[in-house]
Amino acid sequence: MRRLFAVLLVAILGVTGLSSPAQARDKHRVSYDNYSITLDGKRVLLQAAEFHYFRLPSPDLWRDVLEKYRAAGFNAVSIYFNWAYHSPKDGVYDFTGVRDVERLLRTAEEVGLYVIARPGPYINAETTGGGFPAWLKRVPGRARTSAPGYTRAYRDWLNHINPIIARHQVTRGTGSVLLYNVENEYQANTDAQYMEDLQTKAREDGITVPITTNVCCDAGDWASTWGSGQGAVQIPGVDDYPQSFDCANADTVWGPWGEGVTERIRADAPGFAAEYQSGAIDLNDAGYDKCRELTGPAYMKYFHKNNLIESGATAFNYYMGFGGTNWGWLAQPNDVYTSYDYGAAITEARQLTAKYDEFKRQNYFLRALTPLTKTDAVAGPASSNPALLAKTRTNPDTGTQFVLLRHTDRAALTDDSGTLDWATPDGRFAVPVRLIGRDAKVLVAGYDLGGQRLAWSTSEIMTHEAIAGRDVAVLYGTEGTAGATTLRYSSKPRVTVLDGSVSSTFDNGNLTLGYTHRGLARVLITGGGRRPALLLIGTDATAATFWRADTSAGPVLVRGTSLLRSASVSRGLLSLRADTTEATPVELFGQFGRVVVNGRPLSGRATSSGSVVGVLPGPERVTLPALRGWTSRTEGYEAQPGFDDSAWKVADAGLASDDYGFHSGAVWYRGRFTATGTETTIDTNAITGRRGTYLVWLNGRFLGSAAGGVEADAEAPQNPDPGPGHFAVPAGALKPGARAVVSVLVENMGNNDDWTVDDNRFRQPRGLIRASVGDTPVTWRIQGAQGGEDLVDPARGPLNTGGLYGERHGWTLPGRLDWPAANPAVKPGVTWFRTGFTLDLPRKQDTSVVLRFPGTPPAGQRIQLFLNGWNLGHYGGSIGPQTDFVLPAGVLLEHGANTLALAVVADQPGTIAPPELVTAGTQRGGVTVTPVTGR
Ligand code: GAL
């Protein structure tokens, strides 16, 4: 009954906009129409990038990344909440330490970002189980449907996460959550009741912001069924990955998966690109630099701008802004390895890239040009050259036009010029344009640029700010190309070219400036019946040197720092928090007296541009210690026949490890039998997920290894046996009537996802699924991570460790162990290496440290690396191409003693090539990082 009431209430609300009790408490109102989302009636252009807190186990660094988002001009962050990350066991949840999402939401609000909250329950995201906790595999009832078992389980998750999200909604006045996303690419489209139930539950739990979902693949289908009716969300969004994930062919790929134009599912809601590609998973092991190239500035210019004008969407979320690390056993192993760098604008080591600059140029434009929040498609200017297309949208209230200039043939690489016959709100103009290759530009006409009137420009606008009674605008264009800008004045203004070469004519109220985009030209315009204007006309590169921030005394523009984190003005004192990668000149535009940067006074001098220039120091040199003093120890006790396994669980209900509460990493099996002497092979089959392996011993003798499989497909008889292994029993090894022990070490890599809403895939077991020694009966015991689902180390959590002997005995943990000096030779089995190093990195400086293995990842060795007990990655030839492993500050003690432990699982004899510490970047500035705690 209660549910029926809630359903009715939601239905009524959807139709009439009546207030619910929850809404009655709301201090702010989020609404929307077909153009855009509104907050208290004000239109918002939502520009988000995706961030996964669970891929950065250092809460202080969340602030670092979110400040970088904000500085790039994003006004929102989209966040998946990962059920598996918080729940080791049915009914057990943890939201503390690196899992403190309350703190995350607070940080987002403090930084000034809206949040798109995406609690699933299913999230995909290339994370183990697609976010489903491993224990869910044992809960009956098809996942992602209304099946009762699954419903009970997911409601418990939502009971925990929804109230946290609800507390941080914009509507409450106590947070910045602006949208709530149910499910993820639910393209199976099978259970409308389930989609409806998720929304009812959210409303019951106090979610009052609009509800969205991200639709994949065939939005058309979805529109015809759930665009309205049961299960429909208020603002459906669409996922687009036009560049595919073919990073290996980054230099030739151009939109194999389509134009990337966000489809509209509901006519009464704004267009929403719920996930728009900005990076890629590295399916071909090409390395993430190639993924960054695949989705680099050229792609961003064309696809983002094309989508903006073709779709008229006003809400975007770029996947990913920062990818992070699949630390521990977080990865869904079939598609990704440890690094989830993603080729994103901000690297896994938190460094800014050329993609970041392109985001900044585009985002600042979207923020400044508010008429973009309400546009209709209209016929645009005619182009004299059919190779050039000019698609146009206009704001019906202001008349402002946005003209997308691109090649008609989207693959064209030619350099074409032409003239636009452009009927702007300020008159008709013949405007010369030029476009090189796959570039795309959004040109603006009929725009009130602060106190100026822009008739049109062939430069793109990055931003404009009202500073100290004048308009300061940053325009830019392709280096070396001609540009022109026409502004309207009632009388001839005075034009002073402060820098560069700019011509000007005044005719019939039109001031036209002509120039070539090169360096940074500066033009001061005074008189003409308007307040003064300073035009800063640059190239892509010089435009990217600008940063903007708001203060209580108006906006500031800062040029020259490598990042601007925040700015504030108090009693004329401008305080900046900014990073520098080197000693650098800096230029500031704003209304202020004195200046401090990172707490230190800046001595500056005034310029003819009305700015202040000074010099900022760079970072101190960083020297990292060499890693010396390695010690080592071999384990593999479990392979020995005399090992005491009496405390192990008896595996009498099948061999799958999940059934015994062992969900992550290594599991050991020991099978005892009385030999007949006729056994010739040990036949095994294991499912580990891609990149997994298992090793087999008989009476302590190593027999060999095999690759674990991904899935046994009951419906595909050709693959009942995904990870087969056949091991010959050495002659004479089994005497008739003698007791014998077969030991198997299985390295599970994580669970399959459930992208296709296919229980058979998600529920695939892990560990041995079959093992036989001829026809001889064997009794099995199993051992995995210490405590199983009852975590012994809740701070590091359910995905940090597996069941290696060393993991169970604290060999991963900080401190000294009395081991002998390392022998670099490894034999098949498990060998541990440990060393310590002390750091005292420069303070007030952000140094990103990476552990680098030399050469290419070795075949035959798989190495887990633990820093101070935190499992930060998996290295090896059968795992992936990765050689550099990010050691995030917080886990890495920047001022103290660190312990590094390597667990090497080898399936052949070899030698360890020890890794070294290297710097992935260092900047003066950064955020203060406190150590994360563990056991
Ligand atoms: C989408 C999905 C995301 C992520 C992405 C690829 O289909 O919604 O969670 O998996 O693909 O990285």
TrEMBL record:
Family: Belongs to the glycosyl hydrolase 35 family.
Name of the molecule in the record: beta-galactosidase
Entry's EC annotation: 3.2.1.23
GO MF terms, alphabetically ordered: beta-galactosidase activity
The keyword Signal belongs to this UniProt entry's keyword annotation: yes
Gene expressing this chain: lacZ_1
Catalytic activity: Hydrolysis of terminal non-reducing beta-D-galactose residues in beta-D-galactosides
Domain Beta-galactosidase: 371-546
Presence of keyword Cell membrane: no
GO biological process, one term: carbohydrate metabolic process
Species this chain originates from: Winogradskya consettensis
Leader sequence segment: 1-24
Lineage of producing organism: Bacteria, Bacillati, Actinomycetota, Actinomycetes, Micromonosporales
Pfam families the record matches: BetaGal_ABD2 (PF13364), BetaGal_dom2 (PF10435), BetaGal_dom3 (PF13363), Glyco_hydro_35 (PF01301)
Entry keyword set: Glycoprotein, Glycosidase, Hydrolase, Signal
